[in-house]
C-alpha cells in the first residue's frame, strides 16, 4: 500500500495570510510515516499562532485532529496521540505527521489558520514498493497553433506516475501567467498505467516573439519548457499532414 499526499492551497481574497506546501506530493509505503509541511506567510507571531489540523475520511464530515500553538499539540481525542503528531519549525513551518500508514488513513487532511486553509488529499493504491512506482514523464513538449489574431500553445506532458502534478505558465520575466489558461484534467488510457495532462495558453498574435514557459512540478522532477524555437518545426509538420 502507498500513501500519497497532495496539497492544494486556497487563499481568501481578504486574507493577508497564505498557507502553502513545500512539495507537490509525498510518497510513502505501508507502515511508514508521512510528514507534511504547512508553510505560513503573513503570520506576524507564528510561534504563538494556533494552527489547526483536520481530517475527512469519506463519507464522514471533516473533524479536527489537533491544534498547536506555542507549546505541545492539543488533541481533540486522546486516541489520536499515537497516530498523529505536529510541531513547528523555524519561523513559519508547521509539520503534521501520520504514523503507521494504512488504508484507513485515506482521506483529505487540512491545515488551517482561521479562514485560510490547505487541503491534503491522501490515497492508497495497491503498490508494494513505492520506489518502483514513481515515474517521471516519458515526454513533454509545447505545441503551437495559430488562428486569426491569436496563438494557442499546448503544453503536453505524458506518461508519469503518480498522477499528482502541478502545471503553470510564466512569461519572460518569470511571472506566473493566469489569464487565458485552460488546465486539462489528468487522464490515463484504459489499457495503460501512466498518466498524461495538457494545459493551454492563448496569447495575442502580436506576442509571437515573446517567450512563455510551461512549468511542471512532479514528485519525480521539475522542468520548464520554452515556447521559443517550436514554430517552424510545427509549421513543417502541419504542411506534411495537409
Automatic annotation (TrEMBL):
Keywords: Immunoglobulin domain, Membrane, Receptor, Signal, Transmembrane, Transmembrane helix. This is Ig-like domain-containing protein. PANTHER family: T CELL RECEPTOR GAMMA CONSTANT 1-RELATED (PTHR19256:SF65), T-CELL RECEPTOR GAMMA CHAIN (PTHR19256). Residues 15-111, 130-226 form the Ig-like domain. SMART domains: IGc1, IGv. Residues 1-15 form the signal peptide. GO terms for cellular component: membrane. It comes from Strix occidentalis caurina. Gene3D superfamilies: Immunoglobulins. It comes from the Eukaryota. It is found in: Membrane. The keyword NAD does not apply. InterPro entries: Ig-like_dom (IPR007110), Ig-like_dom_sf (IPR036179), Ig-like_fold (IPR013783), Ig_C1-set (IPR003597), Ig_V-set (IPR013106), TRG_var/const_region (IPR051117).
Amino acid at each position: 500500500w502507498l500513501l500519497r499526499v497532495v496539497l492544494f492551497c486556497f487563499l481568501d481574497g481578504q486574507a493577508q495570510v497564505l498557507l502553502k506546501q513545500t512539495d507537490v506530493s509525498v510518497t510513502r509505503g505501508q507502515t511508514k510515516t508521512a510528514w507534511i509541511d504547512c508553510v505560513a506567510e503573513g503570520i506576524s507571531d507564528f510561534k504563538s499562532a494556533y494552527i489547526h489540523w483536520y481530517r475527512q475520511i469519506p463519507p464522514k464530515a471533516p473533524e479536527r485532529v489537533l491544534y498547536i500553538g506555542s507549546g505541545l499539540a492539543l488533541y481533540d481525542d486522546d486516541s489520536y496521540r499515537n497516530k498523529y503528531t505536529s510541531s513547528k519549525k523555524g519561523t513559519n513551518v508547521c509539520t503534521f505527521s501520520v504514523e503507521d500508514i494504512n488504508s484507513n488513513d485515506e482521506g483529505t487532511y487540512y491545515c488551517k489558520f482561521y479562514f485560510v486553509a490547505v487541503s491534503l488529499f491522501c490515497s492508497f493504491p495497491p503498490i508494494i514498493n513505492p520506489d518502483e512506482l514513481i515515474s517521471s514523464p516519458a515526454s513533454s513538449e509545447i505545441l503551437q497553433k495559430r488562428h486569426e489574431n491569436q496563438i494557442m500553445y499546448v503544453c503536453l506532458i505524458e506518461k508519469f506516475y503518480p498522477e499528482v502534478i502541478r502545471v503553470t505558465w510564466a512569461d519572460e520575466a518569470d511571472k506566473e501567467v493566469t489569464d487565458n489558461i485552460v488546465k486539462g484534467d489528468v487522464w490515463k488510457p484504459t489499457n495503460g498505467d501512466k498518466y498524461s495532462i495538457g494545459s493551454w495558453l492563448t496569447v495575442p498574435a502580436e506576442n509571437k516573439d515573446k517567450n512563455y514557459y510551461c512549468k511542471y512540478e512532479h514528485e519525480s522532477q521539475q522542468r520548464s519548457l520554452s515556447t521559443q524555437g517550436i514554430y517552424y518545426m510545427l509549421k513543417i509538420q502541419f504542411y506534411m499532414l495537409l
